[in-house]
Amino acid sequence: MMANSNDESVWAVFDQTAARCAERDFLHIPVESTRGYATQAVTLRYGEAHGQAAAIAAQLAAAGYGAGHRVGIALDNRPDFFLYFLALNSLGISAVPLNAAMSVPELSFVLEHSDVALAVTHAGHAAHLRACLPRAVPLHLAAAPAVIPAPALPAAAHPPAALPGEAALLYTSGTTGTPKGCILSNGYFLDIGRLYTGLGGYCRFDGSGDRLATPLPVTHMNALAVSFMAMLMTGGCLIQLDRFHPSSWWQSLRSSRATAFHYLGVMPAMLLKAPAVDADDCRGVLKFGFGAGVDPRHHAAFESRFGVPLIEAWAMTETGAGAWITASEEPRHVGERCFGRAPAGLACRLVDDTQADVAAGATGELLVRREGAEPRRGFFSGYYKDEAATAQAWDGGWFHTGDLVRMGADGAYFFIDRSKNVIRRSGENIAAVEVESALQAHPDVLASAVCPVPDEVRGEEVFAFVVLRTELPATLELATALQSHCRRSLAYYKAPGYVAFRADLPQTASQKIARARIKELGRATLEAGGAFDLRDLKGRRAAIGRD
To answer: What φ, ψ does residue 309 adopt, rounded to 5°?
Structure first.
C-alpha cells in the first residue's frame, strides 16, 4: 500500500537539502571511475545538481511525461543516473533502473514487464537497448542535445502504470528464475534514510562532513536507496565509484576524502591480498565500512590491518527499513557471520520446514514483520503483476526471507545459509533455475542442476552439473561451448564458472532435483578436481558482443 503525499518524496528531501547546503558537494566521481565519459574527477554541488535535475524534469514534462509513468534508466554508476532519478521523482514518475549487462532476452523481459513509457541511456548502450525495447517505446540519450521524445502513445491509450507514491520499480532475481519487480514507494526510500542515519554506534553521521563511498551498482537497493538517501538526508557527499577496483580502492578513498564506505563480502578478501598503497592515509579518517557477507576468516584481519570496523548488516530489497538488522554496537561477534540484534519494533521468528518455531540456538528460516498495526510498514509494496508471489512471500502474515539464521544466547543473529536456491556472486543474486533453463535449451543437454560453490574472490561461483543427451565425450571444448551458449541469453556473471558432467542427477522421492545433495556434490566435485574451470571466460570483456 502507498501512503505518501507529494511532500513525502525523495525530491522533497533533496529540494530541502539543496536549499540548505547549496555549496556543499552532493556527488563525487573519482577520476578512476570516469573512464569513457570524462578525463578528470567529477564533482557536483547540491545547488548545481538541483538546477540540472530541474532542467531535466522540465524537458520530461514538456515532452508529455508525468505522474504514473515509468521510465527505464540505463546510465550505469554515472552522475546522470542520479540527476534523472531525481528529475523523475520530482514529477511523480517511477524509475526503473536497468542493468545494461543483461542479455537481450533478459533486458527485453524487464522493459516489457515494467511498462516503461521511455528508456534513457548513453551512447555506449544505445544499440543494445534499442534491440531490447518494445517497438512503441522511445529511447533518449542522456547528455545529447536532442529533445526528449514524446510518449509513443497518447495518455488515453497508455494509462499510468505506476502506483501513487511509487518511486522505483527494482527488479531482483527470484527462485523461479523470472526476475520480480519490487514496487518501492517514496516512503520506502525515506524510511531507509532515516533508519541508516539514526543507527548510531559505529555507524555515525555528523551531518556536516560525511562523505560516503560505494562501488555498488545503482541497480541494487543498497546504492539506489541506502548510501544515496543517507547523504541526501545529512547534506553529505555521495562518492560513487563505477565498480570495485582493488588496485585503486585506497587511492579513490583518499583522493575523495571518504569518511565511510560500503562493501560486499568479497571486497575485504581482495583488499587483504592487494598491495595496500594509500591505505595508511585513510587510517583514522574512515569511521566505518558497512556491508554484508565478509568471510569470517577475513573480518578481524581486515579491521586489524586497516583500522576500519566492518559493520555487518542484514536486509533485503523487499524488507527495506521495515526489517533491517545491524551489528553496529558491541558485541559484534567479529568473524562469526553475526549481523546484530533485532531493533525495537521488529518482530522475528526462526522456523523449520513445517513453519514451527525452532528450539533455542537452533537454525531456522528467518521470518520478519513490524510489530503493531502496520506489519508491512517500511517494506516493499509488492511484486508488480504478481499478487500470488506477494501473497506467498507474506504467507501467514510474516515475510519469509528464505535465509537460514541462528540466534545466539545474547539475542544476536548469525547468518548460516540461504534456503532459496540462489547463488550470491559478487553481490549479484543468481537464480539457479534461470541458469538451468539456459543450459537445457542447448540441444546436447538432457538435464542440468546448478548450485553455488565457494569462491575466494567472488564469495560464490556458479557450478553446473550437466547430463548429456548423447554419448558425447565430456571435454573442455564442450563445457566451454555450453558456457558460451549461456552467455548468449544471460548476463555474463550468470554463466557457469564450473561445468561437470554426470550420467544422472540425484532426485527426491517426488523426482525433483535433490538441491541439498547437489550442493554437497558440487563442493565435493570441486575439491576433487572433477569440474572444468571456466571462470576466466566470465569477465565483462568476454560477454558476447559487448564490453
So the answer is: -70, 135
